Amino acid sequence: MSDRDRPTDLSTEYAQDPIGVDEPNPTFRWRVATDRRGACQSAARVLVASAPVRLSPRAADVWDSGKQCSARPAIEYDGPPLAAGCRYYWTVRVWNEADRPSEWSQPATWEMGLSEADWEASWIRRAGTDQSSPFSCFRRSVAVTGAIERARVFVSASHQYALSINGESVDRGQAFAYPDNQYYKTLDVTDHLGSGENVLGVVHAYHGAGQGRPASKPGLILQLQIDFADGRSTVVVTDENWETTAGPWLDAPLRNEEIAEPVEIIDGRRLSPGWDEPGCDADWESAEVVGTHPTDPWERLVAQHREVTHETVHPESVDRLDSGAVVFDFGRVYPGRPVVRFESGTDGHRVEMRAGYHRTDSGVADTAGTQATDMRYAYVQRAGRQEFRSFNYLGFRYLQIDDPGESLSCEQVSIAVSYNAVPDRNAATFDSSNPVLDEVVELARHSALYGCQEGFVDTPTREKGQFLMDAFNMSRVTTLAFGERRLSRGAIREFVRSHYRYWAATGRLNAVYPNGDGKRDIPEFTAAFPAWVWHYYQVTDDRRVLETAYPVVRAVADYLVRHIDSDTGLVTNISGGAGGPYEAGIVDWPPEMRYGYDRDWPALTTVNLFGVNAFKRAADIAVALDRPRSERAYFHKQHQQLETAVVEYLHDGELFVDGRDAHASSDHASQHANALALATGTVPESSIETVTDHVVDSGMQMGPMMVPWLLEALQTTHRPAAFVELLTDPTADGWANILEQGGTFTWESWHCGADTLSEQARRNRSESHAMGATVFTYVLQVLLGVRFEDHADRRLRVRPPDAGLDAASGRVPTECGAVRVFWERNDGLDLTVTIPWNTTASVVVPSRSNRIGINDTTVAVNRSTEVNLSGVDAVRDTGDAVVVDVTTGTYRITTD
Questions:
Q1: How many domains, the chain?
Q2: What is the pTM assigned to this prediction?
C-alpha cells in the first residue's frame, strides 16, 4: 500500500492530542487521505504505550487492540485502567478492501485529567464575597528552579475566572454547571512559566443564579503541577497562601433580569498596574479557605471537553459626533468584550461608553434588538497609559465612547471576540449562481459560529442560557458546517442530566439547562430530543452518546404515551410548560411567529407530529443499538398508531388542521401543521401535492425556531425552486429580509424590525439568535445536494436540485473526509463529485435520456444496467432519475 493509505488526522475523544481527558475508555478515530477508487477499511489495529519508543507490536506496554475486522474508523480503548494525569501515546494501522495492511500512523497522544482523589487544592474566596460585589482578584507567587518539562493547571471557578501568568492572559472559563457536577479545565502552561519568580493571577466573578447559570456559591480552585526535566515535581494549590482583593468594579445595576450580570463600571485607580506580575508589593488580604475539595456545595469536578477561543476584531470605521462622542462600527454583530487603549489618561476622568446593534438617526449607538439589555460601560481613568477591558461578553456591533479625553483611532479600540473553538470554521463551503443566496449562507455561518460559547447560548446579549430547541437547531449547523463534535456531545449529555435531576419520574427534559430557576420544560422541546440525538449520531457516528441518551429517549416515548387519549389515539392535554406562555405546547416563539396558529385545543397537531417523529427516531436509535426486539417493536407500534390517529383526526381530507378535541377540530390549517406533517412523513400519498402546495403558497409563516421543519418539508417534497425563493425574497419574512434591513446576525423573530410590533416588543426581541442559522444545513442538503442516509454508516446521497439554481459548488465534512460537489446546468447537468475514503454514495441525477456520461464514458440506462467502470457499483433507472452508486473517488456525471 502507498503512503497515502496510512491513517492520518488521529483524534482521541474528537480532539487532536487532548489533555484533561476523563473518559476511562476513550475512543480513537482516524481517516485515510486517499482518493483510490473503492478504497475502504476492512480492519484496524491500535497500539497504546507509555512512550513513543514503545509504540510497536512487540513493545506496546499499555494496550494492543489486535486486528479488529470492522469498517468503522474508530476503536474504543479496552485495556487496563488509565492513570490520572498521565500522557499516553497511540498509533493505528488499517487493512484495505483487499486485506492489505497500511504502515503505522504517526503517533498521537492524550493526557488523562485528575481523578477526584488527585485534587489537593482547596476552594477559596475573598471574605465577604456576595452578589453585590461579584468581582475578586487573586494572586500567588511561585518560584521555579530548573528546566520545566511539563506544567499543567487544573482550574475551576463558581462562576467564572480569567487566568494570567506573569501578566499574560492564559485562559478564561469554564462552562456553567451545577456545583455537584462542576466543570474544571486542564491547561498547558509550560511555555508561560520561566525561571525565578512567577505570579499566577486570577480575576474571579460570581454573579449568582440566572439564565444558564445555576445557583451556587462564590469559589475558586486551582492546582498547578510542574514536572521538571531532572525528575522533580512540585504542586501549587489554592489555599490560605493566596492573596486577594476586591476587583476594580464599582457597584452598578444589573444589565437585565435574566443574566444577573451588572453594568461594568471599572475604576482603573483601584488596582495597581502589574498586580499579576512579579515585583508587585501591594498589601492584599489572605484568601478565605472554604474547604479542601470536595466541600459544600462542590461535590464533584468533571473535565470540560470544549474550548472557547478568542480573536481580536478592530472597527471597520469610526464617526465623530457633534457631542464629542466617537462611534466605532465593527461591521457585524460579534459577541465579546470591548477593549479600549488610552494613551494619555487623566486621573479621575470618567469615560462613559455604550454598545449597540443600531444607530439612531442622529448617529448615537442604540440598544434596539438587544432584548432591553443595559449596554452601558464606564471607566474611571488613572493618569497615563492604560487599558479598559470588560470581564463579561455581550453581543454588539457599535461601541460609542463619550468624551474619551483623547483622539482614539481604530487601532486603539477592539472587541475581544469569543466563540466555541471548532475544528475548522470553513469545513463546509457553498457558492452558487445566486449572490443573495450566498449572502444568506454567510449570514448563517457567522451566526452559528459566534452564537456558541461554553454552550449553545440563546443570545450573547441577554439570555445566555442553553435552550434545548435552540441548541438542537444550532447543533444541526455546527456539526455539519464546522465539523464540531464536543460542544454538541456535551450539550446532549447536559440535557440527559436535566432529566435525571428533575424529570426522571415524568419522562421530560428541561427546556433550558443548566439554569437558575431549576426545572422548566416545554413539551415540544422534550419531544424533539430523540430527533436531536439521532441527527447528531448520523453526522458523527458517536455511539457512546447514543447509548448514554437511549434511556432518556425511552422515557420521552413513555411520556408521550401516557398522554395518548384512549378514544382518539392522539396526544392530548400534554403536561408541560405549566404556568407559562407555552403551557401544553409552545408551537413557535416569540408569539407573533405562530402566525395565528389555533392553540385552543387539547390535542395540538404540532405536539402530535413531534410525537410521531419522536417515536420514529426512538425506533431508529433502538435499531442502531441493536436493542431487544420487544423494545424496537414498542417504538414502531407507537409510531404507527399515532401516525394513523393524526391522519384520521387531524387531516381533513386535504390539509392538516391545528388541533381538535373529542367533538370538533380547528378550521385553521397552519403552515406549521402541514410542514411538520411533510417533514415527518405523515401525509397520505393522495394529499402530498395538496399539502405541499399549501405549504409553498404560505410563504414564510414559521419562525426561526421552527423553520428547520419547513425547510425539511421542502427538501422531502423536492421543491428546490420554492426553497430558493423562500431564502432569497427580500420583501418577505426570512433571511434575505434580515439582510435587506441591515441585519448581520440571525434574529429571534422575523419581525424584529417590523412596524407591526409595538416599540416595547421590538426592543424585547433579540437580533442575535443563532437558532435561525439552520438554513446553512439545508442549503448543503437541498442545493448542494449532500445528505446522510438513514440507518447506514458512511453512506451518502448526492442529489443536485433540478430547479432554482444554475450552478453550485462546495464541500461537506464527514468523519471519513470531505465530500466535494460541483454542478452546473446548461442544456443538461454537469456534475463532479468527490466521495471520501471508506464511504459510498448514491448519486441521483434527473435525466429524461436513456444515456448518461460517467467519467467521459457513455452509459446506456435501463432498469437492469450493467456497468464495468472503476468505482461504479450500479446504475439504476428510477423512472424520473438515474441513480449511480459509487465508492471512493472523483466522478464526473453528465446528462443531456
A1: 5
A2: 0.96
